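Good morning,

Attaching, inline, the backbone tokens for the sequence recovery test we're adding to the shared suite. The designed sequence is right after.
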């Protein structure tokens, strides 16, 4: 019987002046756990017990470093910024050069390690892209390159870490596949422990000619991984075998989207009972009831992300649930806006609240601060990151006036470090 939820070349770095020195970076050795109880909202984080004396916030921005058919890659590598959580003001601290197309980023639960995709068809003279690992100095926010490993397929576009910080999971968009990579004790990556190839297509001959795995999200119990495949019009569901580092097809192996929808990204509600999928090709958001015990999805509702009177081309990109669980946000590329929905926490269903202009072109990704009071929007084609205050009672957004120049931004991750090291 498979224990599905059990777990038993250096970059050149350019650093802006910044006061402060960090303690040595290392992984926390904690006991790795089983599935989490139904009542838990999320797995417990691993980390030191810290006495809160001050708070430091940083923003990590992934971007394009190469010119692509769909992006004017003008960045030099991952950009690290200090972040004022009250205003959204950002100040550049570091550019980590040598990171090729680091378009999507994630942090582990301790915020001591960052992982970035290298969104290319081949790297290090081998076919397929890669995931690069970095150590994070929790005092200064600065990154130190550790290593990189192949994802086995071209064009990795999404990366996440399981709750025990034991494995990285990544999707290869161009290759239509999913990779699992073990994490070593120092935060660096081992070679793949599993590789799953998707096979299929759908009705859009240009965008859905084959499988295009676009994202992978692990549920709060750390038992199932859900993969949005834009090319197949399916959300694939896998059980996580953390003892072996493998993905096992779930009893419900997938749920189908509407033909031509193109599921792209997914976000779980904090209560773990609902999942929200943004569909890139038909500009919609789909609401699913989620049975965490069985990893099962049931569609409840699908809504447009666009105003009724909008005429023009649009694709969607990111979807986020507010930390409070009261609101869902999605980004529109073309309409160049953030759509806002209110959540009925009894049913998970959405009600339209409004739109807020992204203050730039092609809002690819956005993120919320841990308290949900600040949103940062990455406008890829405007080379800007725009800050918004979030009204946590109404969900509405108001620009703070802070606009940060950042070349070809794709992904923004916020880390808030509290206490001393």
């Amino acid at each position: 019987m498979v224990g599905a939820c059990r777990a038993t070349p250096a970059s050149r770095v350019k650093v802006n002046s910044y006061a402060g020195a960090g303690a040595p970076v290392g992984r926390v050795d904690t006991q790795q756990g089983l599935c989490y109880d139904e009542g838990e909202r999320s797995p417990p984080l691993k980390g030191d017990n810290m006495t809160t004396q001050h708070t430091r916030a940083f923003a990590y921005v992934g971007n394009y470093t190469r010119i692509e058919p769909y992006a004017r890659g003008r960045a030099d590598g991952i950009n690290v910024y200090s972040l004022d959580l009250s205003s959204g003001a950002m100040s550049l601290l570091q550019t980590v050069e040598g990171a090729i197309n680091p378009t999507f980023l994630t942090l582990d639960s301790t915020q001591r390690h960052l992982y970035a995709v290298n969104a290319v068809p081949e790297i290090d003279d081998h076919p397929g892209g890669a995931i690069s690992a970095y150590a994070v100095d929790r005092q200064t926010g600065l990154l130190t390159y550790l290593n990189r490993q192949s994802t086995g397929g071209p064009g990795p576009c999404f990366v996440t870490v399981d709750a025990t910080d034991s494995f990285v999971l990544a999707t290869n968009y161009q290759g239509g596949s999913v990779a699992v990579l073990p994490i070593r004790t120092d935060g660096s990556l081992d070679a793949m422990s599993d590789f799953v190839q998707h096979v299929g297509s759908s009705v859009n001959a240009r965008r859905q000619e084959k499988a295009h795995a676009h994202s992978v999200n692990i549920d709060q119990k750390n038992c199932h991984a859900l993969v949005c495949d834009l090319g197949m019009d399916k959300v694939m569901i896998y059980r996580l075998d953390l003892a072996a580092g493998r993905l096992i097809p779930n009893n419900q192996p997938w749920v189908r989207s509407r033909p031509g929808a193109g599921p792209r990204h997914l976000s779980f509600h904090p209560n773990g009972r609902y999942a929200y999928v943004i569909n890139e090709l038909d500009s919609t958001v789909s609401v699913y009831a989620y049975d965490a015990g069985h990893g099962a999805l049931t569609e409840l509702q699908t809504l447009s992300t666009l105003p009724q009177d909008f005429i023009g081309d649009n694709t969607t990109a990111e979807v986020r649930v507010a930390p409070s669980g009261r609101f869902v946000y999605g980004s529109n590329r073309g309409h160049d806006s953030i759509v806002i929905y209110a959540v009925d926490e009894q049913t998970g269903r959405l009600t339209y609240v409004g739109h807020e202009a992204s203050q730039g072109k092609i809002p690819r990704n956005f993120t919320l601060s841990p308290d949900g009071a600040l949103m940062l929007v990455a406008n890829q084609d405007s080379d800007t990151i725009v800050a918004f205050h979030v009204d946590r009672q109404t969900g509405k957004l108001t620009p703070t006036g802070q606009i940060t120049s950042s070349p070809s931004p794709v992904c923004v991750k916020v880390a808030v470090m509290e206490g001393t090291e």
